[in-house]
Amino acid sequence: MLAKLIEFVSNHYVLSSLFVALLIALLINETRKGGKSFSNRELTQKVNSGEGVVLDVRPKKEFDAGHIVEALNIPHDKLVSRLAELEKHKAKTIIVVDAMGQHAGAACGELQKAGFTAAKLSGGIASWRGENLPVVK
Q: What is the pLDDT along the chain (137 residues), one digit of tens a residue?
């Protein structure tokens, strides 16, 4: 299998180079779209200092199965219609959490368009649980 891949790349180096360039451009674009990423430690510091609030954008059923302490829950597909619920937190950084990072960037983009300061938790709730940090049900 690897030999065939090497053969393909050597026979089609222009096509392969173009694919790698497009992949890199896509990764850069996706990284920029969601804004800043916070580590678990940075999230904890922001929330403990009163400068941040956690917004969990997973569906309610997943949220109820376990979430970060004091996190708010607005599912990502309802975020735009429920932005008014976050107005009282406009002075803080909204730290968006999802399952593994797949929706957090888009949610941050929507929040930033609405005038909020937003960041995402790198790796989502999976990274939080991976470090055995507390969740509540």
A: 888 888 888 888 888 888 888 888 776 666 566 668 888 899 899 889 999 999 999 999 999 999 999 999 999 999 999 999 999 999 999 999 998 877 888 888 889 889 999 999 888 898 898 888 888 88
Place of tokens 């975020």: 79
User: What type of residue is 30?
Assistant: E
Provide the token pair at 65.
């199965």
Amino acid at 46: K
Helix%, strand%, coil% for the chain, nearest 5: 55, 15, 30
**Domain map of the chain by residue range?**
2-31, 34-130
Residues 6+ apart with CB under 8 A from 93: 46, 51, 52, 53, 117, 118, 119
pTM summary value: 0.74
> How far, CA to CA in Å, does 104 sit from each of 8, 9, 15, 114, 122?
36, 35, 32, 15, 9
CATH level 3 topology of 34-130 = Oxidized Rhodanese; domain 1 (3.40.250)
